[in-house]
Amino acid sequence: MFIFSKIKLYIIAALGLLLPILYVLGRKDGKNLEKGKVIADELQAQKKAADFYKAMSEHDKTHIPTNSGELADRLRKHGL
């Protein structure tokens, strides 16, 4: 019985010593994961902006209305 308590004590002490090391490694990995998420989010935002400006440039190539009737129809169809 005495031997089992010593074994448990050594296991608990070893885990107690490993805990700060695991904490530091976990923070490092977590920081890298967050950095990757931020970079992916920024890439997605840039793609959305590029698609928006591409759509705007295509939209500008359409016919420019010359009278008020065409302008009103275009506003009803596409909005501002």
What's the quick description here?
With about 80 residues, this protein is mainly α. It has 2 helices and no strands.
Major beta sheet, specifics?
none
Number of domains: 1
Structural class: mainly alpha
Bin the strand percentage. under 5%
Rounded to an integer, what's the Rg over CA atoms? 31 Å
SSE order: HH
Low-confidence stretches: none
Helix content: over 70%
Number of strands: 0
Overall morphology = rod-shaped
Q: Quick check: average pLDDT?
A: 85
Q: What's the tally of helices? A: 2
* First-to-last CA distance: 83 Å
Task: Provide keyphrases for this structure.
80 residues, mainly alpha, 2 helices, rod-shaped
Could you explain the architecture of this structure?
The protein has 80 residues and is mainly α. The chain has one domain. Helix content is 88%, strand content 0%. It starts with a helix and ends with a helix. The mean pLDDT is 85.
Helix and strand topology:
Blueprint: H1 2-60, H2 68-78
